[in-house]
Amino acid sequence: MSTKVTVAFQPVLDKGALLLGGEPHVVHCHYYNHFLQTSIEDAEALYPVEEVLVWTAQEIAHSLFQKLFAEEGITDHERRKALVEAVYTRCGYGKVSLSGISADGGEIATPYEHYAYTYAATFPPRPKGKRGVAYFSQGYLAGAIEAIYDLPLGSMGSQQTACLTQGDAEVRWRFYRLPQPLPLTPSVGEGASQKGTIFQPSTTRVPMAQVRDAVLGLPLLPDAETGLIEAFGVVLTFIPGNYYALISERHLQRMIQVAGEEVRPLVLDMLVESGHVCAFNTLGGIMQSAEWDAVVGPYLDTPEDWLYGITAVMPAIGWGIVGCIEHPSAQKWELCLPNWYETSALAALPPHQRKMEYSPFAEGLFAGIMALVYKAGIHERRLTFDGHLYKQLFQDGRVYKASFYQSRLRGDSRDALTVTSLDA
Fold this sequence. Notes:
About 40% of the residues lie in helices and about 15% in strands. By secondary structure, the chain is an alpha+beta fold.
């Protein structure tokens, strides 16, 4: 389509959020995306995982584009398609054309889709009998098609019919009208969002608000040909934070349904591990980037300054506001998390509809940051982010553990956690 469309995120500084179509979007990398999705997909023998991975994306995209079309006053189907294509690319999901889509469905094919492209470039091919990996795009596009044609949520069925991970030249999906809608629920949008202030500690020269604003100004833009965002040594996406929060919550619910409460620690450990993966790859890449050296580097006097610096980045990538309650040390780091994106999504659900009591991802994330600084010594030398270093930091005996002592999901007024050294 030739229609030119501009897509821009709306930063909400007092929430540490990036809004688009009423949905808070967060930055993550392909390593985290694959770890979380594959960990959920491993349960496919226990429950139909597409009901979590595909349906959740469908719910969010339907709500997002309904709101975006209303905000822009767009009623024409072709202009709506152009906006969906532009948003899909701006968020780093890849490149798609909806020219072959109607209210009855149709096919979409592309050689560039984030999950499939990065999986094929990183891992061995999947067997032909196994599903492709583009679950998120499958659901996202189904929900977008429903919104384009003002169809009820859940009325569009979908199937992935080809994938780069199986040696195919493209990713392909088929969309079709269902006789009865799927049992889907509209997105919670901003959810139970909180306001906060990025705090400037007196114990560091790192200018917290200045770092946040500089990161907000970085051109994290997709490649013109592929629609993928390569930065900091990884491939990034802007995916709605509600998607990550809800697939984690719904996976936990499904696992408890089929295996009982005794499976809870195993699922929570996996989600903690996802935080380690994110700290190691996404945040580690940021802390060794030229942008970090230029924006934060001049203020890094101590190892603790690296902790302050990376927490100043988080509001700019949509994760919420992070505050250090006390000056950190190698033994202890105490933090509060106003508007942490997972909590704001899940706290909007009635208590009887959720099993999560805190964010295990955040526990793994902040423990992972401590390990990068105080065990790996990222403040002293350039690191090689490979399997050997990851194993040394997180699998040969974890050296840091985080625990929430206050959680909005337990009824507290805020989220607060402590990271402590296990070597102490």
